[in-house]
């Protein structure tokens, strides 16, 4: 290990100029990719790589030096207490997104007060991280998830299988607006849709803009709320039960505007919540109960 770590750091110094990040990547390669224990890593004992390990390391160093995200190289990414498979078909789960899961689960007793078997639908599921985390936190719920990307659905289905989580998946384009909803009427719809304006691309890391799917990231500058408008309209149909909830992750620059959009479409009890970094990141609202 005393020879391996300097080799890794020298190979990736240009790709990871920050010392803390380079150290974290070095540890991940040694422990997660090559299978050495943390004890061996910190003890810095000499190690000999097998031919398979050497090939894995060479391939990883090549990919990382080109700017590919570590999570794609490892093939996995953490989300809450989960370890999920990821590839270029899906966004890498972000830690702040767990706040959306936490908000729904914390208030589940209120949200699902009138049912013992709530139906939860994740629109634009990507890796399946939100749907899987919700199902594991709310085992009595029936969780459904959809995405426009067949490749993303394959990844999400694999993650559900690998985590032994029962979720029903379907292909669905929320922007189409003219296709039948593939699931039962929901008590709660959740979504982390694309919300980054194209003009923000210039200020983002190339690891994101070059490698992660643009389909799941960006929206037009002249219509940054188009997915929330589509979700609001979907919720006005039988896809969402009266009294049901929509909970979404948003661009922090448009949290207030998103809340106004839902109010404009007739939703009530509209709330905004900050993420772990103190930014307004989530919006939640209720569909009015029909008067008898």
Description:
The chain has 2 domains: 4-66; 78-286, Rossmann fold, CATH 3.40.50. Helices cover 38% and strands 20% of the residues. The chain has 12 helices and 11 strands. The chain starts with a helix and ends in a 6-residue tail after the last strand.
Quick recap:
The chain has 292 residues and is of the alpha/beta class. Helix content is 38%, strand content 20%.
Indicate the topology:
Blueprint: H1 4-12, H2 19-33, H3 38-43, H4 51-65, H5 70-74, E1 76-79, E2 82-85, H6 98-106, H7 108-111, E3 119-123, H8 129-137, E4 142-147, H9 150-162, E5 168-171, E6 186-191, E7 196-197, H10 206-211, E8 218-219, H11 226-235, E9 240-249, H12 255-264, E10 268-274, E11 280-286
Parallel strand pairs: 3-4, 3-6, 4-5, 6-9, 7-8
Antiparallel strand pairs: 1-2, 9-11, 10-11
The end-to-end span amounts to 71 Å
- At the third CATH level, what is the topology name of the largest domain? Rossmann fold
CATH class label of the largest domain = Alpha Beta
Question: Fraction of residues in helices?
Answer: 25-40%
**CATH superfamily annotation of the largest domain:** Vaccinia Virus protein VP39
Strand content: 15-25%
Could you give a short account of the major beta sheet?
7 strands, mixed
Give me the strand/helix succession: HHHHHEEHHEHEHEEEHEHEHEE
What Rg do the Cα atoms give? 21 Å
Query: In the CATH classification, which architecture of the largest domain applies?
Result: 3-Layer(aba) Sandwich
Inertia-based shape = elongated
Which key terms come to mind for this protein?
single chain, 292 residues, alpha/beta, 2 domains, two-stranded antiparallel ribbon, 12 helices, elongated
């Amino acid at each position: 290990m005393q020879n391996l770590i300097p080799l890794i750091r020298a190979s990736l110094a240009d790709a990871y100029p920050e010392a803390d990040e380079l150290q974290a990547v070095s540890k991940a390669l040694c422990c997660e990719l090559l299978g050495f224990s943390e004890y061996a890593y910190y003890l810095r004992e000499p190690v000999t790589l097998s031919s398979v390990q050497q090939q894995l390391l060479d391939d990883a160093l090549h990919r990382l030096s080109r700017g590919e995200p570590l999570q794609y190289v490892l093939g996995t990414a953490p989300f809450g207490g989960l370890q999920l498979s990821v590839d270029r078909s899906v966004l890498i789960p972000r830690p702040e997104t767990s706040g959306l899961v936490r908000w729904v689960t914390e208030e589940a007793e209120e949200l699902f007060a009138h049912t013992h078997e709530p139906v939860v639908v994740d629109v634009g599921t990507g890796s399946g991280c939100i749907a899987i985390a919700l199902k594991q936190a709310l085992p009595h719920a029936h969780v459904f998830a959809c995405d426009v990307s067949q490749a993303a659905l394959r990844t999400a289905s694999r993650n559900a299988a690998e985590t032994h989580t029962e979720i029903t998946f379907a292909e669905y384009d929320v922007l189409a607006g003219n296709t039948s909803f593939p699931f039962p009427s929901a008590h709660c719809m959740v979504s982390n849709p694309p919300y980054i304006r194209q003009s923000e691309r210039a200020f983002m890391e190339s690891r994101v803009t070059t490698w992660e799917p643009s389909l799941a990231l960006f929206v037009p500058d002249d219509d940054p709320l188009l997915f929330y408008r589509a979700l609001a309209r979907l919720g006005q149909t039988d896809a969402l039960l009266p009294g049901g909830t929509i909970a979404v992750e948003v661009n922090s620059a448009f949290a207030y505007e998103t809340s106004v959009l839902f109010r404009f479409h007739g939703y009530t009890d509209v709330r905004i919540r900050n993420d772990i970094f103190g930014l307004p990141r989530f919006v939640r609202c209720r569909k009015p109960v029909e008067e008898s």
